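Budget justification aside, the reviewers requested a transparent look at the raw inputs and outputs of the sequence design task funded under Objective 1. We therefore reproduce one unedited record. The lines immediately below are the structure tokens for a 85-residue chain.
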């Protein structure tokens, strides 16, 4: 279950953050360099205080969840396997 949650978080990270940066680097969608695309993404995400308040905590949550859920899954499965023996 934890790996499914990590997969959902990975999809959200791609869809709402990394995908925007990569797609703006494509020649037909702006052709920006990585740095310029990242700066453009940051400007869009923080264009207003409300948007920054809604988007940036979600980005932090998704990033942390990508680390927590797989570790939790590995620890839980390891503990469950040890008790079964």
């Amino acid at each position: 279950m934890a790996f499914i949650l990590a997969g959902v978080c990975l999809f959200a990270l791609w869809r709402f953050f990394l995908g925007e940066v990569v797609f703006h680097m494509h020649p037909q969608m702006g052709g920006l360099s990585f740095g310029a695309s990242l700066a453009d993404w940051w400007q869009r995400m923080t264009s207003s205080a409300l948007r920054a308040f809604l988007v940036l905590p979600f980005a932090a949550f998704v990033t942390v969840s990508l680390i927590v859920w797989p570790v939790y899954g590995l620890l839980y499965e390891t503990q469950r396997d040890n008790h079964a023996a």
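Residues 2-84 form one domain. Helices lie at 2-23, 34-45, 49-84. Computational costs for records of this kind are itemized in the attached budget.
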